[in-house]
Specification:
By secondary structure, this protein is mostly beta strands. It has strands spanning 3-16, 26-30, 35-46, 52-60, 65-75, 80-82, 89-92, 96-101, 107-117. The chain is globular, with a radius of gyration of 15 Å.
């Protein structure tokens, strides 16, 4: 049974260098072993003067597949986008969020996760 009383929070920012999908994309979060995670915030920022595309994928460890959260999201220069917008989505042990951009070092990402101990989840 997950223990939500002892959750902890993880927030991290990244500059995205990758321009390729799946295992070649930049990993911005990996859910730790024996934990579950609730994605509370997934913020994108284009630090370029021109419009750029960004790609955000969810890696589902159980079936080893990548799925798009944002596929070629066009962002105007110096614009921002929030992909969670008050909702949330869950990750299990080994699941990942990966990001790549149209060009290197133009996309910034901030993720904030609520992690909770959940050793019984098997995928």
């Amino acid at each position: 049974m997950p223990n939500l009383d002892s959750s902890k929070f993880h927030t991290q920012g990244y500059t995205i260098a990758s321009t390729s999908a799946d295992a070649s994309a930049n990993v911005v979060y990996t859910c730790p072993t024996n934990f579950g995670a609730i994605t509370r915030y997934l913020h994108l920022s284009n630090n370029s003067n021109s419009t750029k595309k960004v790609y955000v994928q969810f890696y589902h460890a159980e079936d080893e597949e990548y799925h798009y959260i944002a596929n070629g999201l066009s962002m105007a220069g110096h614009s921002v986008a929030n992909l969670v917008n008050g909702g949330f989505f869950n990750l299990h042990s080994g699941d990942k969020i990966v990001v790549y951009g149209e060009t290197t070092n133009t996309i910034e990402v901030v993720v904030s996760m609520e992690e909770y101990y959940n050793p019984q989840h098997k995928g």
